[in-house]
């Protein structure tokens, strides 16, 4: 109940607080209507919840009612779902909810109440019946011309979710509610917890219906709005059978917009039709892709597609084909009704008139927007088709990556820049929003140097500009790469934007807090970073890491789902042939942030102990002066400073051995880059890359408590043949990792 109260307040506030991308125009009418509707809702909710509460006291046995192999009629709106539902509802093997049950009697208690009132009304001559008819003709019919209401007609049972404020129809009353628009893209936009909660409520609605009617009939439901929840329904009702109605997208878009607009404008006055068009195009496209990607993966006999021409030109044959595909019995009595139903379907002419021009759209634009859908299904076909016979559509996702790390500035910045390059051809769009990105600067409210490294900055962006930048990209998936201000703000915004959140855990900031802030401030900052991680863990649909340590950390801190992913390699590192490896290795390279956790001092000590080898140190950080002083003192040590990616590739090719002796290193991307260039790579046990078993033959790992000097002595004693094979193996293994990495990320983006 507390959640419903919070959702009610959210609906009211969505009407009172103007939104930049909203449908409603600002003004007294907006506020009066929103406030008026908001004040009426508590009375309706009190009525609904009184009945639901009585059910738990008087009819609790409804929860034990089984739902056996239900049949769900889905489809994009305006695709013939209503006509098919009304036809199948005449088959005695089915039971389905009626309009009066969905709107007035969602509980068993309500239904007994209204049954009693109906009997009294008939005894009194039907005054209430006549009043209801007048209200329908006078007030409701003008708003529902595209979908007339009748109390006894079969109706969409998602209306039984009105007591939970989880019916998409509420968007007519509150068109600027982000929560309702998220509900309209359920499989993609709702979290797993939200989907489970919604299905629990929906299941209980069905059980109440079966309990009231005391029937073992097969439950039949029709919901166009559930086209975007087909994967959720499939998971919640594993025995369910699906009938998916489809229609040409140009006709659907025009019809759906013209069916919503009268109700919206009757309540709110003029609305932003362009904004409505954009939202509906996105939602309808997702409805098509969800149906065409999920249902073809069902086993044969579980789902069937019904194009609208099949209903219009041969409803009887269509129903027979559907029954045959879904293994439904066709009783003689209903079979005899099919001829009448077929004739009515052929003679039916809709009075609903609509045009794309009314919304500044045209057929060409719709064809372009739904090109992938049109290529996957023939909407002109005149027969139903089993979903198992259709090639599943691969959904094209819009992805935004948000990072506090500047592009290619450190390991995390490099990881996601490389990943985006590899994914660009695999998704519809992918965009990086990062602190310090010179190509897309953003206003910051506050900036400071990173603890222990003033060469890198942590910045608090303007929340309004960040929200605008993310919202303009309309992401289906939002990847948060870091738990800094950019990442935390984006994580908090993801739910409202209807984007699925993926959190990348690549650095153990809790461990670094103790390292940099000392004994007094360290525990405080460690506690703070733990709270930040916990916040993102709870909100993320999945947490990804590229090391065993990070994986365990996320699992231990309560992440809903944790996946370990590989690391990508820059395309130019893969596609260009590296220079030959010279052995024994006498050209030694260190690349990384010049900071305490990287143990740069051990590299300097190794240079002192091996004057015959040439050492280069690449990077910036708080220990830069120490490195510069050592380079002036030692003839075999060069301070290269920070290098861009092209310069880094050249530096790797000019070396024989990369060393990475870090105390804390989530992965160690530069070691992988060295491997793909055919170099030897020596890493400490604290580097995450050392945990990957597939690198056992291509990666050199220091012993526990072994210094760089000792490890280098050990390597120099090995046979050049063995080392050459190690370098060749490293290149093959690193290239294979990138292919696996891209596949893993695509499976996360397309769950």
TrEMBL record:
Residues 410-564 form the Glycosyltransferase subfamily 4-like N-terminal domain. Pfam families: Glyco_trans_4_4, Glycos_transf_1, Sulfotransfer_3. The chain crosses the membrane at residues 31-50. It comes from the Bacteria. One of its GO terms (molecular function) is glycosyltransferase activity. SUPFAM superfamilies: P-loop containing nucleoside triphosphate hydrolases, UDP-Glycosyltransferase/glycogen phosphorylase. The keyword Phosphoprotein does not apply. The keyword Repressor does not apply. Keywords: Membrane, Transmembrane, Transmembrane helix. Residues 584-730 form the Glycosyl transferase family domain. InterPro entries: Glyco_trans_1, Glyco_trans_4-like_N, Glycosyltransferase_grp1, P-loop_NTPase. This is Glycosyl transferase family 1 domain-containing protein. It comes from Spiribacter curvatus.
């Amino acid at each position: 109940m507390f959640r419903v109260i919070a959702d009610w307040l959210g609906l009211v506030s969505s009407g009172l607080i103007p939104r930049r991308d909203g449908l409603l125009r600002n003004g007294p009418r907006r506020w009066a209507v929103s406030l008026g509707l908001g004040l009426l809702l508590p009375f309706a909710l009190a009525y609904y919840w009184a009945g639901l509460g009585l059910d738990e006291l008087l009819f609790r046995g409804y929860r034990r009612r089984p739902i056996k192999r239900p049949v769900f009629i889905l489809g994009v709106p305006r695709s013939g779902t209503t006509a098919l539902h009304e036809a199948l509802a005449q088959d005695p093997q089915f039971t389905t909810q009626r309009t009066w049950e969905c709107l007035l009697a969602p509980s068993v208690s309500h239904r007994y109440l209204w049954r009693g009132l109906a009997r009294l009304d008939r005894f009194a001559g039907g005054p209430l019946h006549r009043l209801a008819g007048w209200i329908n003709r006078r007030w409701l019919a003008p708003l529902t011309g595209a979908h007339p209401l009748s109390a006894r007609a079969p109706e969409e049972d998602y209306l039984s979710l009105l007591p939970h404020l989880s019916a998409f129809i509420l968007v007519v009353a509150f068109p600027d509610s982000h929560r309702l628009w998220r509900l309209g893209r359920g499989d993609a936009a709702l979290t797993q917890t939200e989907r489970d909660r919604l299905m629990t409520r929906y299941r209980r609605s069905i059980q109440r219906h079966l309990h009231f009617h005391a029937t073992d009939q097969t439950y039949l439901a029709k919901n166009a709005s559930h086209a975007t929840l087909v994967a959720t329904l499939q998971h919640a009702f594993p025995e369910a059978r699906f009938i998916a109605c489809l229609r040409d997208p140009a006709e659907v878009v025009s019809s759906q917009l013209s069916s919503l607009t009268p109700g919206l404008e009757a309540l709110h006055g003029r609305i932003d039709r362009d904004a409505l068009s954009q939202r509906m195009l996105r939602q309808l496209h997702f409805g098509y892709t969800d149906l065409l990607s999920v249902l073809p993966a069902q086993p044969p006999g579980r789902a069937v597609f019904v194009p609208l021409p099949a209903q219009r030109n041969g409803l009887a044959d269509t129903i027979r084909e559907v029954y045959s595909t879904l293994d439904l019995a066709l009783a003689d009595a209903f079979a005899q009704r099919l001829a009448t139903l077929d004739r009515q379907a052929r003679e039916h002419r809709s009075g609903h008139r609509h045009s794309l021009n009314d919304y500044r759209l045209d057929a060409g634009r719709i064809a372009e927007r739904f090109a992938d859908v049109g290529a996957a299904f023939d909407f002109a076909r005149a027969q139903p088709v089993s979903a198992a016979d259709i090639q599943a559509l691969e959904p094209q996702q819009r992805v935004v990556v948000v990072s506090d790390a500047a592009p290619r500035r450190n390991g995390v910045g490099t990881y996601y820049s490389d990943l985006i390059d590899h994914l660009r051809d695999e998704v519809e769009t992918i965009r990086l929003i990062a602190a310090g990105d010179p190509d897309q600067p953003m206003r910051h409210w506050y900036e400071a140097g990173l603890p222990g490294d003033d060469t890198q900055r942590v910045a608090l962006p303007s929340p309004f500009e960040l929200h605008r930048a993310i919202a303009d990209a309309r992401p289906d998936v939002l990847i948060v790469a870091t738990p800094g201000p950019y990442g935390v703000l984006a994580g908090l915004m993801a739910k409202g934007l209807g984007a699925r959140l993926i959190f990348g855990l690549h650095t153990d900031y809790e461990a670094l807090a103790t390292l940099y802030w000392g004994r007094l401030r360290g525990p405080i900052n460690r506690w703070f970073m733990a709270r930040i991680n916990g916040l993102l863990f709870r909100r993320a649909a999945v947490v990804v890491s590229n090391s065993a340590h990070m994986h365990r950390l996320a699992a231990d801190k309560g992440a809903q789902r944790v996946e370990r992913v590989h690391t990508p390699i820059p395309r130019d590192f893969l596609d260009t042939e590296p220079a030959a490896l010279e052995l024994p290795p006498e050209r030694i390279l260190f690349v990384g942030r010049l900071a305490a956790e990287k143990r740069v001092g051990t590299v300097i000590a190794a240079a002192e102990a091996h004057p015959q080898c040439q050492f280069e140190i690449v990077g910036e950080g708080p220990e830069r002066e120490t490195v510069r002083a050592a380079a002036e003192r030692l003839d075999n040590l060069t301070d290269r400073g920070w290098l861009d990616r092209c310069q880094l590739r050249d530096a790797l090719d000019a070396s024989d051995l990369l060393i990475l002796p870090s105390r804390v290193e989530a992965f160690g991307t530069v070691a992988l880059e060295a491997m793909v260039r055919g170099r030897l790579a020596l890493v400490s046990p604290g580097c995450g890359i050392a945990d990957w078993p597939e690198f056992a033959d291509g990666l050199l790992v220091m012993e526990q408590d072994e210094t760089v000097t000792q490890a280098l002595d050990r390597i120099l004693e090995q046979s050049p043949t063995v080392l050459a094979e190690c370098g060749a193996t490293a290149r093959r293994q690193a290239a294979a990792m990138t292919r696996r990495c891209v596949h893993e990320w695509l499976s996360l983006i397309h769950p």
